[in-house]
Amino acid sequence: MRPDAYAITIILLAATVESGTILLFPIIGEIFTERSGILNLGIEGMMIIGALVGFATAFMTGQIYWAFFMGMLAGGLASLIHAFISITLRGNQVVSGLALSIFGLGVTNFYGQEFVNLQLAHTIPQVIIPGLSQIPFFGPILFKQDYMVYLSYILVIITWFILFKTKAGIQLRAVGQNAQAADAMGVNVYKVRYFWTFFGGLMAGAGGAYLTLNCAPFWLDGITAGRGWVAIALVIFARWNPPYALIGAYLFGAINALQFQLQSMGTTIPSALLSMQPYFLTFILIIVATLLVKAKHIGVPKELGIPYAREEK
Amino acid sequence: MLKFEKRENIPLHLRILIPLISILLGVLIGGIAVMFSQVNPLTVYKAIFIGAFGSTYVFSETIVVAIPLLLISVGLILVFKMNYWNIGAYGQYIMGAIFCTYFALNSAETMSRPILLMMMCIAGMVGGALWALIPAALKAYWKVNEVIATLLLNYIALYSLKFLMYGPWRNPRSFGFPLTKIFDLNAQLPKLISHTRIHLGLIFGIIAAIIIWIIIKKTKFGYEIRVIGENEIVARYAGINIAKNIILAMIISGGLAGLAGMAQISGIIHMLQIEINPDYGYTAIIVAWLSGLNALTAMIVSFFLGGLFAGASQIQITMKVPIGIVGLIESSILFFLLGGAILTNYKLYYKGRKII
Questions:
Q1: Domains of chain A
Q2: Helices of type H across B167-277
Q3: Are B254 and B132 in contact (CB under 8 A)?
C-alpha cells in the first residue's frame, strides 16, 4: 500500500496546482488593480465571462490556446465597463464591481444556454518538461502540467519584478498610495488606473478560461461557483504581493483538491460539508490575514476605492 | 474639453430623471442583448410586461416577488447609508429560513397558530441577525473587510442548508428528494387575498419600510448612521461609537433578511428545500441602490423589479428566453445609474459651455 499513498499524494498535489492556477491569475490581476487604487469586485463576473467565451471558442474552433486568449480578452473588455464608471465617471466602485459580477452571471446564463451540458473533446494538453519533471516528488507535481500553469509561474516572477523593480511599478504604487502626489510628479493617474484595471480583467478572464478549458471542460450555469470572491479575499491574504498570491491560491487549491478526492472516494462525511470547506478556509484566512496586515502595518493601498478628480480645487 | 465642476446641491429634476433614464437605457441594453439571440426584443418586453402586470393573478405574483425584495432592501438601505456593504443578505435569508423551520417541524402540534407563527418570525429574524452579527463584529473590532466576509458566509450558509436537506432534515417519505415535510397549516403565514399567493409578509414589508424610513430620518441612531456614511473621521471626532452602530444596523439588516426568508418558506413554499430563492438577497442590493437609499421609494422599486422577475420567469417557460436576462437588465440599469451619478454631483462643461 505504501507506493499507492505516495502516488495519491502526487496526484493530489498536482491537482492542487491545477486548481490553484484558476485562482492565481485573477489574484495577481486584482493585486495590480487594487495597487492602482481601483477596487474591482467584478472578478466573479469577469471570470465567468472568460469561462464561457473560452469554452465557446474551443467548442466551435477546437483551437484551445486561441480559446484561452479569447477568454482572457473577454475578461479584459468586461473590466473596461468598471474602469469607465469608476475612473472616468467617478462612480461608486463597490456597487459598480457588484454590478459587473451580476452582469457576468446574467450574460453568461443568457448566452450560455445553448452550451449547457456540452463537453469539450480536448482540454489543454499536458506538456512534460524534460529534466525538471524528473526531480523526485516536485517534478511530477510542478512540471507535468500544461503551458498555462508554466505561464502562471513566470507571471508570478515577472509581476513581482514589475511591481518592485521597474518604473511602471513605482508609478503604479505611487498612484495607489497618493494619487495627487503622483499626478504632481507627472504620472497620468487615469492612464495608470485604466491600464491595470484592464490587466486585472485579462487575468480574471484567464482564470475563468483555464477553468473551463482544463479543470471542468463543460459548461454549467454559474460554473465559477464563487471563485471570484475567493480571489478577492486572497488578495488581502497575499498582502498585495504576487509571490504570496501563490501560497493563497495553492492553499485553496489544496483544500479543493482534497475535498474533491474525498468525495470521489466515497467517504462518509456529508458532501455538503466537504464542499463548504474551501469557503470556510478562505473565511478563516481572511480574518487571520486582516489581523496580520494590521499588526505589521503592511500597506493597504491608501487610495483604494477613492476616485481621483484632477480638476477639484 | 469636458470639464466637471462640483455641485453645491442636487436639483430635484436630476434626482428623478437620472434613475428613470437609467432604467430606460438598461432596458434598451437588455433589448439589444435579446436581439443578438435572434428574438424580437419588443415581443420579449411585451411578454414580460403581460407576464408581470397583465392579469390579476400575474399582478399578484409580482407582489409575491416584491415582498422579500422589500423586506431585504430596506434593511440594506440602513447599512448602505453608513457605507457598510452587507452583501450577505443571501446567507442571512437562508439562515432565517433554517431557524424558523426548526419550529415549523417541531412545534406545530404543541403551539397554536398565532404563537407558532410569532415564534417562527422571531426565529427567522434571530437566524438572520446572528448570521449578520459575525461579519459586523469582525468589521467593528478587527476591521475585516465586510464585502468578502459576508460573501463567503453566503456560501457557508448555502452548504449548511444543503447539509441539512441531504442529511438530518430530509423527510424520509420524500423519495430521496431533499425536502422537509410540508408545513402544517399552523406554520403557514395566512394569505391576505384569497386566490392569490400574497401573504402577511406584505404587511411586514410595508411596516419595515416605514420603520426604517423613520429610523434614518428621525432618530439619533439614524443621524449617527448618516454621519458615519458621509465621513467616518468626522463621526469619530464627534464621539460617535462606530462599532456599536455597525453592529446594531447589521442586526436589523440581517434580521429583516432572515424575516424575508421565513416569510418566503412559511408563506409561499410551505417547506424547506434547497431552492428557496436566496438570490433575492442580491437583487435587493439593486433595489436599495435604485431607490436612492430611500426606504419609501424602495416600495415602488421592489414592485418594479418584482415585476421584471415575475415577467421574466414567465417568458423563460413560454418563450425559452433564459432568466439571465434579468441580471443583464438589472446590472445595466445599475451601470447607468452609477455613471449617471456624476451628473448629480458635478456640473458638466463642454468647451467652456455648460451642458447640464
A1: 2-295 (1.10.3470)
A2: 201-218, 220-230, 232-237, 242-264
A3: yes
Q: What distance in Å separates residue A144's CA from the closest CA in chain B?
A: 33
Asked if B166 is an interface residue toward chain A (Cβ–Cβ < 8 A), one would say yes
A200 in Cβ contact with A232 (< 8 Å): no
- Domain assignment present for B334: no
Inside any domain, residue B215: yes
- Residues 82-101, chain B, touching A (beta carbon < 8 A): 85, 87
Q: Judged by CB atoms within 8 Å, which residues 3-32 of A form the interface with B? A: none
- Give the whole-angstrom CA distance, residue A176 versus residue A169: 11
ipTM: 0.91
For residue range A218-260, what is the model confidence (pLDDT) as tens digits? Answer: 999 999 999 999 999 999 999 999 999 999 999 999 999 998 8
Is residue B91 one of the residues assigned to a domain?
Answer: yes
Phi, psi of B252 (to 5 degrees): -65, -45
Q: Does B15 touch chain A (CB under 8 A)?
A: no
Identify the domain containing residue B177 by its residue range: 66-291
Q: Looking at this protein, which amino acid is placed at residue A41?
A: L
Is B66 in contact with B311 (CB distance < 8 Å)?
no
Categorise residue B38: left if φ over 0, alpha if ψ from -120 to 50, beta otherwise: left
Q: Does residue B138 form part of some domain?
A: yes
| pLDDT for residue A313 | 40
Q: What's the structural domain count of chain B?
A: 1
C-alpha distance across the termini of chain A, in Å: 73
Q: Report pLDDT digits (tens) over B162-200.
A: 999 998 899 888 888 899 999 999 999 999 998 999 999
**How many residues are present in chain B?**
356
What sign does the dihedral A23-A27-A33-A38 (CA atoms) show? positive
